[in-house]
UniProtKB/TrEMBL annotation:
InterPro entries assigned: Quinoprotein_ADH-like_sf (IPR011047)
Keywords: Membrane, Transmembrane, Transmembrane helix
TM spans (from-to): 31-55, 67-84
Name of the protein: Uncharacterized protein
Length: 122
């Protein structure tokens, strides 16, 4: 959190203004990565089972198409993840359930630079 030192309005004395509270967690995109990896693992298992079934029936070309579709799906996750991150910034992480966030308790305080006494708190 940022700290600023300077003169407050109405006083010639130096003050320190700082934020006090919990730091936020990782960006929403970081929380989405394990979910996407789990979906990739499930999709890989499903595609492999489907390929085995079609290979047994002698339709190996369809198996190659399924693998290409799986690779395309994995490649498209990168721009989707970037879009999800940008959306969380634009919507200011609201609603919280969609972006894995909760309200944080925090205060903004101004302290006298020499004595440390609280001038104001918000």
């Amino acid at each position: 959190q940022a700290v600023a030192v300077g003169k407050l309005a109405g006083s010639d004395l130096l003050s320190v203004v700082a934020g006090i509270g919990n730091n936020p967690m990782l960006p929403a995109a970081c929380w989405a990565i394990p979910i996407l990896l789990a979906l990739d693992a499930l999709a890989t298992c499903a595609f492999c089972c489907a390929c085995c079934c079609t290979a047994c029936n002698g339709k190996q070309l369809r198996c190659c198409r399924r693998l290409a579709l799986l690779l395309l799906m994995m490649v498209l996750q990168v721009p989707l993840l970037y879009g999800y991150h940008q959306l969380s910034l634009a919507w200011e992480a609201q609603p919280g359930w969609l972006f894995f966030v909760a309200p944080l308790k925090a205060n903004l305080v101004a302290l006298d630079a020499e004595t440390g006494k609280t001038r104001w708190s918000y």
